[in-house]
Design a protein that fits this description.
Helix content: under 10%
Strand content: 25-35%
Structural class: mainly beta
Largest sheet: 6 strands, antiparallel
CATH class of the domain at 3-100: Mainly Beta
CATH superfamily of the domain at 3-100: Phage P22 tailspike-like, N-terminal domain
Strand order of the largest sheet: 17-20-15-16-19-18
Number of helices: 2
Order of helices and strands: EEEEEEEEEEEEHEHEEEEEEEEEEEEEE
CATH architecture of the domain at 3-100: Beta Complex
Number of strands: 27
Distance between the termini: 35 Å
């Protein structure tokens, strides 16, 4: 869509008969001439002026002077009709469509006014597939920024003041440390020549907060009910799925930094005891890092598989052979048989006597066989395909 602009300079038509005489058939000036002006194609009088600035209107009809000359006459742009007549002889002419059409408005660049938030603002991040430095931005390489006298490693200049303030007020010192410690305000620290650290994106992928202000998505953390007992490191989790040892536990009554040590069924062992007065059921978040804190870093591209990550039907490093107990009878007396004299010796059916029940359980001597994997125990690569470049943050 095109817009238009009209020049502020006045544009006028200088009437051609200004300062001119109209002669009769005998070559003598006519002394009783009059002139009238109208909008083109109408009988609507058109205002005419005595000056080019169109500031001093002339009365109509315009009258010639004693020598038959008309005064200077100026008209505004556009077509007009003029009638010139003699008081004694009547109309000399009545012409329409004179002058010049009004100038067309000139087309101009159609670009509208662009709102300030259409541009990158302080703290915005950008990725480029090169390693160059970009004007107005700093690399997110864990370097520092500050004023020109600060000795900052990434950029020391007055133009870093806005980003210094943004990092100071938005992130805690563990995410954006101020070298030498944080003072009373960002402006005071900046003026004092302190340096603040730009968060590093070296070797990291971008990710989305699991909440973003609308509740957990449950994609990079697990949400589950956790039943605590004050002073105890043992708790019961309602749903053990997607919970593994090493995960951090974020819940009311659980101290910061507490992790999952082990999980058997729904019984969970924590690295620290539940706080005093915390007995009861709470909603807990289980994650490898705080997935709801802006700027948090977590994950690792190498991870060693532990026994808890293996299926339930696999051994944990050894196999034990444990046969069942065996029960039998033990005879302690051997009878003597007499043959040939028809004597009184024992019959052959009772040659063994003194039977005693015996049970043998070989469990005490069970055989344990070690299962080993020479060269094993190495980390498992977990790195997804990626293309690397440079992350920047707007000053």
């Amino acid at each position: 869509m095109w817009g238009f602009v009209v020049s502020d300079a006045p544009m006028t038509i200088f009437w051609p008969l200004s300062r001119q005489q109209v002669l009769d058939l005998n070559g003598r000036p006519r002394l009783d001439l009059r002139a009238q002006f109208f909008d083109a194609g109408t009988t609507t009088p058109r205002t005419v002026f005595a000056d080019a600035a169109l500031a001093t209107p002339l009365g109509q009809p315009v009258v010639c002077d004693a020598s038959g000359r008309f005064p200077r006459v100026f008209l505004s742009p556009g077509l007009y009709r003029e009638r010139v007549f003699s008081v004694t002889a009547g109309d000399l002419w009545n012409d329409d469509g004179l002058g010049l059409p009004a100038p067309e408005e000139e087309p101009v660049d159609p670009m509208p006014q662009i709102p300030a938030n259409a541009f990158a603002i302080t703290g915005d991040t950008m990725w480029r597939m090169d390693g160059l430095i970009r004007s107005g931005w700093v690399r997110m390489n864990g370097g520092t920024i500050g004023n020109a006298a600060s000795g900052a490693s990434e950029r020391g200049d007055a133009d870093t003041a806005d980003l210094f303030s943004y990092l100071f007020t938005t992130f805690a010192d563990d995410l954006a440390p101020v070298i030498g410690g944080r003072g009373a305000s960002a402006s005071a620290d900046f003026a004092a020549g302190k340096r603040i650290t730009v968060p590093s994106m070296r070797g990291l992928l971008q990710g989305g907060l699991d909440s973003m202000g609308v509740g957990s998505a449950g994609t990079i953390q697990t949400i589950a009910s956790l039943e605590l007992t004050a002073g105890s490191a043992t708790a019961t989790v309602a749903t053990p799925d997607r919970i593994v040892p090493g995960m951090l536990i974020f819940a009311s009554g659980v101290n910061a930094g507490t992790t999952v040590v082990s999980l058997s069924g729904t019984t969970l062992t924590m690295s620290g005891a539940a706080a005093a007065g915390s007995t009861g059921t709470v909603t807990a978040r289980f994650a490898l890092f705080d997935a709801e804190r802006p700027g948090s870093v977590g994950g690792d591209w190498l991870r060693t598989i532990i026994n808890a990550n293996l299926p339930l039907n696999l051994p944990d490093g050894s196999a034990t052979i444990d046969p069942a107990a065996i029960s039998f009878e033990k005879y302690t007396t051997l009878q003597t048989l007499s043959f040939g004299d028809g004597g009184t010796g024992s019959s052959a059916s009772a040659i063994w006597q003194g039977a005693t029940p015996v049970t043998v359980d070989p469990a005490a001597s069970a055989l344990t066989i070690s299962i080993s994997n020479p060269g094993g125990g190495r980390p498992l690569p977990q790195l997804p395909p990626m293309r690397v470049g440079t992350f920047f943050m707007k000053l």
